[in-house]
Amino acid sequence: MNLLAEMEMFIRVVECGSFAAAADASGVSATMVAKRIRNIEQRLGARLIHRTTRRQQLSEAGQLYYERSRQVLKEAAVAESSVSELQAVPSGLLRIAAPVSFGSASVVPALAEFMAKHPAVRVDLTLDNAPPKFSKGNYELVIHIGAVDEPGIVVRPLEPYRRKLVAAPRYLARRGTPKRPEELALHDCLGLTYWQRRDRWRLVGPRGANCDVPVRGAFTANHGEAVRVAAIEGLGIALLPEATLTHDLAAGRLVPVLPAWSLAPSPMYLAYTQDRRPTAKLRSAIDFLLHRFGARR
């Protein structure tokens, strides 16, 4: 018999006034009740109940054990209730990771809307382009560009991650607008230092056509935001995430270049550990993010 069950039986004996009455309330024999009380006393090394043929009385140790046992069972009930509430109402801290550019431009506004709907949820967002490591226990949800190979992880497809060729109007006024992808070789092209092939853009065009273009430029950076600002400042043509360009295109700070051509879209996924009883917080966050960013059929 587990410890909580023994405490519950002891409390029942005290409150019912006898072993026989506790046995009736528990649906067991009085002999079984007496045996369980003896087990508690032997484990504790103390007499809890003074028994005679006519009455029973708590010892000092028994009174203390009774009071503490009631408190323990009350706390256990609160713990059970708290978990049930957590399962029912989205609340608590949501730990999530997302790619740097997509996270800043798209995930943060989405999370603001999610938190407005669920004010009891707090969010800890990590922006990181590295593959997730669920085994370290740092995240509950991860949005990742590319394959997620960690075992035991549920992976749900999102809309592919797309990039666009853009430039500032003043750059194009000065250098001209390329009409074919091959003409990019004659332009200043802004690069990211962590790309494996910074000197070559492998573009995909209409009907799946491919064009492998050698590129060069006077400016590179290790962060997409720096490349975006460089493009706005007229330093060259950039390949930037579609999600980061909405406001710049609408304001005319940047304009599309060769709109029919770009890098091949990259697969993007929502990943999370398999949980047979996920919290309401996690369930609602998964549903919300899939509705917002999930792959369209």
Automatic annotation (TrEMBL):
This is LysR family transcriptional regulator. Residues 1-59 form the HTH lysR-type domain. It comes from the Bacteria. Pfam families: HTH_1, LysR_substrate. Keywords: DNA-binding, Transcription, Transcription regulation. InterPro entries: LysR-type_TF_proteobact-type, LysR_HTH_N, LysR_subst-bd, WH-like_DNA-bd_sf, WH_DNA-bd_sf. GO terms for biological process: DNA-templated transcription. PROSITE patterns: HTH_LYSR. Belongs to the LysR transcriptional regulatory family. One of its GO terms (molecular function) is sequence-specific DNA binding. Transmembrane segments: none annotated.
